[in-house]
Amino acid sequence: MGQVINESPAAEPRFKARGVDKHFGPVQALTQVDLDLYAGQVTALCGDNGAGKSVLTKCIAGIYEIDHGQFFWEGQPVHVRSPRDSARLGIETVYQDLALADNLDIVQNMFLGRERLRNGFLNEDDMERAATKTLADLRVTTVRSIRQPVASLSGGQRQSVAVAKAVMWNSKLVMLDEPTAALGVVQTRMVLDLVRRLRDRGLAVMVISHNLNDVFEVADRIAVVHLGRMVAQGRASAFDRQSVVDYMTTGASSRTGQRTDGNGAKSGTR
Length: 270
Hints:
CATH topology of the domain at 1-90 and 173-179 and 201-270: Rossmann fold
Order of helices and strands: EEEEHEEHEHEEHHEHEHEEHEE
Strand order of the largest sheet: 1-13-12-4-11-10-7
Strand content: 25-35%
Structural class: alpha/beta
Low-confidence stretches: 257-270
């Protein structure tokens, strides 16, 4: 499982992965991975390039089916074999490319593939109202018009629209892949504030990020993957930047309080 650092969770995780393996031919991408994601908390998933962050995220999202192990949703074992299964549970993913259509406006993007109909025609008024309410609830106020093309938006605004699209569908877990990549200081602030609002609304949030400044600014918990294994996870307050870098690059760190169990494996205090 890797190290569990200063952990005394008060509630059952909204999502749990236990003993998850995933391979692609001879390549073992994930090995015995455990992960806990809690409602009302931001979990930062950290790891070097090729560590397995994206594979783990895509397994949870239903793009890849795990080979071994078990997922649990609100304490119950579940099978996630497709994105439809994931969405049905309330899991939404915002990928780094955002998957927005530049030629469509904000409303059209937010309802793309889930358009609302009335008497066989698009119910534009209903979709506009729902899009406006979702953006207002998330306090996305910098958008000039919900009918402006996505191509005209800034990077931070595009990220905000992608997140709003994800949370519109009664989602309970939102996973964000490098949400501040290539954003300036002001736009990064906008997106991090948005992540906090998702947490404050009681969602479980997982942020995949290389940016440790962002991680320590918004994360309640940190999980670190190294070479396909979960090497540490726990409260963010139990880590510092150097310990996260140590775990990311070597799979171990001497900077956090550790004890040795009977098998000689290091683990944190529970």
